[in-house]
Specification:
Elements (H helix, E strand, L loop, with lengths): L11 H13 L18 H6 L12 E8 L6 H13 L3 E8 L2 H11 L8 E2 L7 H6 L22 H4 L21 E10 H7 L8 H13 L3 E4 L9 H4 L1 H10 L3 H9 L9 H15 L12 H9 L3 E7 L2 H4 L10 E4 L11 E8 L3 E2 L5 H13 L3 H9 L14 H4 L4 H12 L2 E4 L10 H18 L5 H20 L1
Parallel strand pairs: 1-2, 1-3, 5-6, 8-10
Antiparallel strand pairs: 3-9, 4-6, 4-7, 4-8
Helix pairs in contact: 3-16, 10-11, 10-12, 19-20
């Protein structure tokens, strides 16, 4: 969809030049959908635009960036900017680095000065993304999934994405507003050496095999699974919403379940999948598969139990290696497994993927700035950028072809690599558990609180989950009805 450039005033000389260019051949100024195959026609056009994306070479652009400085650090981002500027020297960046970039963004949004706002920024948005999208302040990026990667051998980002990554990418009103560039996964993390020493099954294929593993571990006097009772939703890393999707597929109910889940259609807590999930956790608790003192543990203490061999597995994320690097012995090697819910070997196992760290683009910026911002977001999918993300940032690459090269794969840290290895030997679907709508009524928070406060007691086999689920469902119903008014 070529765009005609309108001008209020223009000199005669420039007008004549434009007519001459038109006579020589038409130039399509849209960013190339082929990510590496030029769209410009004619010798003059090829000299004035980049063949990789159809954007002008002779117009300098400075992108103002707000960078969320988190545990990933900034080295990967600086490396990406450097390589981008070498390829496109007319583009430069002005970056504000801050661990509180969301506060800075919130202040700029409140000020209402579009010129002062960042062209692109990462991190959170105070009050959530939905109100800003509803106000038309963010540029949609759904189209980038169909862009061909600069180094993808003709494949689109959608085609290169990990299985399930595209479908479960966070969206608002059905559109992507921050293209994911890195990810974390979660499940049960453990010491491979401890498992090998005891001959324990590192890859149970069915629910029954998983329970057998827990029993084998318990028989050795070791806690099978730990999690931080001070932050009980950590248990979701292994048994969260992704397991509901898995149960729905087992029940041949996936399409309806997904629609209900994404759009907050009842039942939620009382869906057959939710009831089954909590019933299984409750039964595991009665068998003593979680530590008695779990309520007093924080996330570091629960992970330390695995490092010290007091517990075999911990419900956490692949970030654990970075988080525990100062406490982990040199001979410790992180392993990963997901909980299989099916009784049939070879069934799809749903695994949590939190794909993010992408950049929002401010909609009220000049078109050329927004086009270059989108190009940069696509650039972040380049394998050399993804390698620095894995090596220095400790995150999961977003491309499934990343580990095709052994040298590149060696840059992935042990915990994320273990997750990749799990994907290679199992039928895995990645799921983020995102919702299409948000609920603002206080009853929604109350509903969530009812569940959260009961997790440890359910996991210890001391609280029947059904009364809790009924109470939470009633509060959720109230919140949904309030939203509809």
């Amino acid at each position: 969809m070529a765009k005609k450039i309108k001008a209020v005033s223009i000199t005669v000389a420039v007008a004549m030049l434009a007519l001459m260019s038109a006579a020589c051949g038409k130039t399509d100024d849209k960013p190339a959908a082929d990510g590496g195959q030029g769209t410009a026609n004619g010798a003059n056009a090829s000299n004035s635009v980049y063949p990789e994306n159809g954007l002008p070479k002779d117009q300098k652009v400075t992108l103002k960036v707000g960078f969320f400085e988190s545990g990933m650090g900034r080295e990967w981002f600086d490396s990406a900017m450097d390589s981008f500027k070498k390829k496109f020297p007319n583009v430069s960046f002005e970056v504000v680095y801050s661990p509180k970039i969301d506060t800075i963004v919130g202040t700029k949004i409140s000020a209402g000065n579009d010129q002062d706002m960042f062209d692109l920024f990462s991190g959170g948005i105070p009050g959530g993304v939905e109100p800003v999208v509803a106000a038309g302040k963010l540029e949609p990026q759904e189209d980038l999934w169909d862009r061909k990667a600069y180094d993808g051998n003709g494949k689109t980002l959608k085609e290169l994405a990990l299985d399930g990554e595209y479908a479960s990418a966070p969206r608002v009103q059905g559109k992507t507003y921050a293209l994911p560039v890195a990810g974390t996964s979660a499940g049960l993390l453990y010491d491979k050496n401890l498992f090998a020493k005891n001959g324990w099954n590192e890859n149970p294929k069915t629910w029954e095999e998983f329970l057998k593993l827990c029993e084998d571990i318990k028989a050795k006097g070791i806690v099978p699974i730990t999690f931080p009772g001070q932050y009980p939703t950590y248990l979701d890393n292994a048994f969260g919403a992704w397991k509901l999707f898995e149960l729905a597929e087992i029940n041949n109910n996936l399409k309806k379940f997904e629609d209900d889940f994404r759009n907050f259609k009842l039942p939620q807590h009382l869906s057959s999948e939710s009831v089954e999930r909590w019933k299984r956790i409750y039964e595991m608790g009665k068998k003593g598969y979680f530590p008695e003192g779990v309520a007093a543990l924080n996330h570091t203490q629960s992970q330390m139990q695995v490092v010290q061999g007091k517990a075999a597995m911990v419900a956490t994320g692949t970030w654990v290696q970075n988080e525990m690097k100062d406490s982990t012995p040199k001979d410790f090697k992180w392993g990963f497994m997901a909980v299989p819910m099916s009784s049939k070997p070879g069934s799809t196992v749903y695994v949590r993927l939190s794909a993010g760290n992408g950049n929002y683009i401010w909609a009220a910026k000049p078109d050329l700035n927004k086009k270059w911002a989108k190009e940069f977001n696509v650039w972040l999918w380049n394998l050399d950028v993804q390698t620095v993300i894995a090596d220095k940032g400790g995150m999961l690459p977003v491309r499934k072809d990343f580990s095709d090269d052994p040298a590149r794969a060696s840059k992935i840290q042990d915990a994320p690599k273990a997750m990749y290895d799990y994907m290679k030997t199992n039928k895995v679907m990645l799921e983020s558990g995102f919702r299409n709508v948000s609920l603002s009524d206080p009853a929604y928070q109350q509903s969530t609180k009812v569940i959260t406060e009961a997790i440890t007691q359910i996991a210890l086999g001391k609280q029947d989950p059904m009364p809790i689920l009924q109470e939470a469902e009633a509060l959720l119903k109230k919140a949904i009805e309030a939203q509809a008014k």
